[in-house]
Amino acid sequence: MKFSPKDPPRRFSVGNSVKFDMLDCGSIGLEPDEQVTLVTQSGAEYDVARKDWGFYATPSLNGRLQEFGLRGVLIRNRETGRYFILLVEQGREASFDTYCVQENLAVIAWLDSTAALDNLATSLHAH
């Protein structure tokens, strides 16, 4: 693993209806079969694992991610039509809902339980 900090961090504006600054603090280069874990102040964890074919972008949605205090959700930006998978800290759903309204985002599906994922799989295979 190689961490390349950006000092000072690159600052850029993001947001649709409410603009705010984001700080790009650096980059991490991973070799195949290396992983990094990002941790929030509340202790929620998020693993990114590199393989020779690409990345595991999340731990198992209905397993380790849930155990780490995060909920996967598929959203769509109503303005741009772009889709994103976001990770919401358990207990921060009200803040997430406010953000969705502010940024004009639609929740397509929560990806945080076996039942929700099985329903999604069944729905997709039915079409």
Description of the molecule:
- The chain is 22% helix and 46% strand.
- The protein is built from three helices and eight strands, in the order βββββαββαβα.
- The strands form three sheets. The protein has a three-stranded antiparallel sheet with strand order 3-4-5, with no helix packed on it. A three-stranded antiparallel sheet has the order 7-6-8. A two-stranded antiparallel ribbon has the order 1-2.
- It has helices spanning 64-67, 93-103, 114-126, and strands spanning 2-14, 20-29, 35-39, 45-51, 54-56, 70-77, 83-89, 105-110.
- It is α+β, with helices and mostly antiparallel strands and 127 residues long.
Topology:
Blueprint: E1 2-14, E2 20-29, E3 35-39, E4 45-51, E5 54-56, H1 64-67, E6 70-77, E7 83-89, H2 93-103, E8 105-110, H3 114-126
Antiparallel strand pairs: 1-2, 3-4, 4-5, 6-7, 6-8
